[in-house]
Amino acid sequence: MTAPTSAGDPPARGAARTEPARGAARTEPARGLSIRMTTPTPDRTAPEPLIRVTEVTRDYPRPRTSLLKRAPVVHALRGVSLDVRPGERFGIVGESGCGKSTLLRIIAGLDRPTAGQVVVDGQEISRLPERRLRFLREELQLVFQDPMSSLDPRMRVRDIIAEPLVVQGHPASGARVRELLDAVGLPADSGDRYPHQFSGGQRQRISLARALAPSPKILVADEPVSALDVSVRAQVLNLISDLVDDLELTLVFVSHDLSVVKHVCDTVAVMHAGRIVETGTTGEVYATPQHPYTRRLVAAIPTLPRALAGATTRDLLKGALE
Ligand SMILES: Nc1ncnc2c1ncn2[C@@H]1O[C@H](COP(=O)(O)OP(=O)(O)OP(=O)(O)O)[C@@H](O)[C@H]1O
């Protein structure tokens, strides 16, 4: 990723990458999907990024409070620039209200910037009419925070998963739906059931299966585990990570939680008040944060006391069990 900067910010880190590439050969693909067997290594030398955001601003008008005054404006994004390379796992972190979801919506062509440019796979999308965004609807798929509200409760799971294919005019065979269910670790008969018959983690697996149905190049995830029980978060994060590897996806992953981004992403951009204040590999940003805001975020990551870090549940409950 090329380092984005905003006027007045400390310099963001450069394009140099010191973190080892996530390139080890894998032995097993995600279950049931026909895929290549090696993990993609982010292509640091690719001439063109898959996503290039240049000086994007987004202002939202607020309701007028007085006839005599101009309507106030929320500056949700203030000159954001970033590049995401093919195969990169790009995390965006920052506290609530800093503009993460707005940025994702603009990258996904669901909202338009007030100014600036967004190029996805070589096409400038920010001014394209909806009918010319069809390529984006196929290449880029989204997973949202709350699977219950993003899955239609009246539809069977098989129809939910097939929906993006049907909308795009592609055949949606039962075999393809079963293949996708298998890839996300759900039993084949899940297709006959409804979303409310699944747990939160399973519903997020359904969302992932639906997102993967059109074989996208880019997966965009907006806080995909923050509505889930802590106990299932790691499973869903590992699943996302494996699917991204196995299907050679490019991932854009938003979270307010740095430890979640560290788990999944190789690159991170830290957002604060509508700007990106720091970017770099997750390794460098977490080890040596440069911007004061990043330093505060990193310092706030909860860590177990060293003595407890390697302890088993039995060790921790020892006194109570005896
Ligand atoms: N459609 C809208 N109309 C008016 N203001 C908006 C709209 N969407 C977002 N905003 C405002 O823009 C700012 C950025 O919002 P955004 O949802 O992008 O932040 P976020 O970092 O994703 O926060 P969260 O994690 O809470 O979703 C906020 O002040 C928000 O209130």
UniProtKB/TrEMBL annotation:
<protein>
    <submittedName>
        <fullName>Peptide/nickel transport system ATP-binding protein</fullName>
    </submittedName>
</protein>
<dbReference type="InterPro" id="IPR017871">
    <property type="entry name" value="ABC_transporter-like_CS"/>
</dbReference>
<dbReference type="GO" id="GO:0005524">
    <property type="term" value="F:ATP binding"/>
</dbReference>
<dbReference type="Pfam" id="PF00005">
    <property type="entry name" value="ABC_tran"/>
</dbReference>
<feature type="domain" description="ABC transporter">
    <location>
        <begin position="51"/>
        <end position="298"/>
    </location>
</feature>
<comment type="similarity">
    <text>Belongs to the ABC transporter superfamily.</text>
</comment>
<dbReference type="InterPro" id="IPR003593">
    <property type="entry name" value="AAA+_ATPase"/>
</dbReference>
<dbReference type="InterPro" id="IPR003439">
    <property type="entry name" value="ABC_transporter-like_ATP-bd"/>
</dbReference>
<dbReference type="GO" id="GO:0055085">
    <property type="term" value="P:transmembrane transport"/>
</dbReference>
<keyword id="KW-0813">Transport</keyword>
<feature type="region of interest" description="Disordered">
    <location>
        <begin position="1"/>
        <end position="48"/>
    </location>
</feature>
<keyword id="KW-0067">ATP-binding</keyword>
<dbReference type="InterPro" id="IPR050319">
    <property type="entry name" value="ABC_transp_ATP-bind"/>
</dbReference>
<dbReference type="InterPro" id="IPR027417">
    <property type="entry name" value="P-loop_NTPase"/>
</dbReference>
<keyword id="KW-0547">Nucleotide-binding</keyword>
<dbReference type="GO" id="GO:0016887">
    <property type="term" value="F:ATP hydrolysis activity"/>
</dbReference>
